[in-house]
Structures are given as C-alpha cells and as structure tokens.
Amino acid sequence: EQQVETLIHQHQGALLFLKSGTDQDKQFQLAIAEVKPPLRGKAGVVTVSPRQGKRLVNEENLPALIVFDAHGQKLYQFIRQLDREILNEVVYQLASHHH
Predict the structure, then answer these.
(1) pTM of the predicted model over 0.90
(2) What share of the chain is helix, strand, coil (3-state, %, to 5)?
(3) pLDDT grade, residue 56 (50/70/90)?
C-alpha cells in the first residue's frame, strides 16, 4: 500500500488494518483507537477495505492487522484474532524507537 510506504519514507511505523466487513472488525478498531495516542508522530494507521484486503491476504485471514516498523520491517501480523498484550508490546517498541 502506498500510504504505508509514505509513512515508512517519513521514518514512521505503520499499522495496516485489513477490514473484513464483519463484526470481527470491532475488536480491531477498538484496539487501534486505544494505541493511537502513544503512537502519535511515531506510526500511522492505514485502513484497507475488505475488497482491497483480499488482494493482500486470503479472505479467510481477514480481519488482519500488520505492523511495520519505521524501516519497513514487518514486526507482527495479527490474523482474525487480536492479542492485546502482544499489540501493546509491539506498540511500545514503535513508540520508543528513536532515530
């Protein structure tokens, strides 16, 4: 996704949220809303529609959240389920990353 590349080019991490268009999206959206404040200036969130998401991962793997660091490295990929503890750890890594 071009938006992700733009963030990385700006030395920011990115959270790529691939929506499923189902109720499962809600837990992802709530978690993303919670982690946005500590990530301000460190990482951006890019939300992708279910139609676009299917080009990136198999439909049965939606919703998904893929986390990239400021260098474009994939830190973690959440598929269908979100583990808040792991997400918080990944967010901490992004938020405390210094250039």
Answers:
(1) yes
(2) 45, 25, 30
(3) confident
